[in-house]
Specification:
Length: 297
Amino acid sequence: MEKEEFEKYVKAGKVLKEVQETAKKKAKVGVKLLDLAEEIEKQILELEAGTAFPVNLSANNFAAHYTPSFDDKTLIKEKDILKIDIGVQVEGFIADASVTMDFSGENSKLVEASEKALENALSIIKIGTQLGKIGEEIQKTIESFGFKPVENLTGHGLMQYITHAAPAIPNIAKNDSRKIEQGKAYAIEPFASTGKGRVKEGAKTEIFESYKAIPLRNLDARKIQEKAIEEYNRLPFAERWLIKEFGETKTKIALRELLQKGAVKAHPILKEDSGVLVSQAEHTIVAFEDKIHITTR
């Protein structure tokens, strides 16, 4: 990793920290999730950075990949616990971090479980740390609070314009001898659950990602494919972003064709069972010049 690349990771982290603080202040009972998402994404652009993915605002049993639809009326409720997962990129170099908001204060232990798991994981990470040891520390910490780590969600590598690069970093103890490497960036991302500790895909999808460029006859599908590749740089995008430009009907028809032909892939909501609560905590680290730099703290 060149120093210039490292500095872009650092800048992305600084922007994310500022935006995250704003988001925590704005996220209140009665606030519309759509308004919160648009404020966060607008501020990222105002700070001369780009979105690495649509802001995720996943509440309660929704663990990840919930971003509001263009006409979403969902309000934050008093009993909600809300995961605010933000991605910022500077010339494709990404910062990815999340916090969980507990509006009633009734689930502070669950929130603390994921936060402490992240803190403990970060405390043992150095260049050469085995990924399985990170998962072991996360699992041990979350279980000490009486909850389950979400075993089929992981941390991940970060690369230029790639939000989920190899390797997957487990949230449970595994015999994984791969190591944290010099010159690489990673997102460490524990999830704690009051349920089984496994998520499944929901029916709703609002986040998509360009997969490959293919010939298309539909003009709107071609325009959306070009936008996903050129403007979004193949990073994940929200359906609501496209609807603002192309309208609801044209966007939905075009996305259907792009999905059917394998030009884009969908990122459905990931959720635990109904009635279960999930908390999340996340930071980005960059291994540079023999040190671990937490760019989002």
